[in-house]
Design goal:
This protein is of the alpha+beta class. The chain has one domain: 2-Layer Sandwich (Metal Transport, Frataxin, Chain A), CATH 3.30.920.30. It has 3 helices and 5 strands. The strands form 2 sheets. A 3-stranded antiparallel beta sheet has the order 2-3-4, with helices on one face. It has a two-stranded antiparallel sheet with strand order 1-5. Strand 2 and strand 3 form a beta hairpin.
């Protein structure tokens, strides 16, 4: 299994939009995404890279496993 590495926030945002999340609001540098059926929103800081632990927490919230994420993120540039 390939190792997860931090991603630029814009690339992770493209992934969120590709899986059906919508940007609800922005407060400062924090963006809030929502998708129907989720228990809680996804918060993404709009600067730098997204650390691996944040990505894993967000994937757990979305109900997407690591392998599916890696397959989908390869297609997103």
């Amino acid at each position: 299994m390939p190792k997860l590495q931090p991603l630029p926030w814009k690339r992770f945002e493209k992934f969120l939009l590709a899986v059906g999340c919508m940007l609800k609001r922005q407060s400062g540098s924090h963006r809030v995404y929502w998708k129907k059926g989720m228990q809680r929103p996804i918060i993404l800081q709009a600067k730098g890279n997204v650390p691996v632990f944040i990505m894993l927490n967000n994937l757990r919230t979305l109900g997407i496993d690591r392998d599916d994420f890696l397959q989908k993120i390869k297609k997103i540039q």
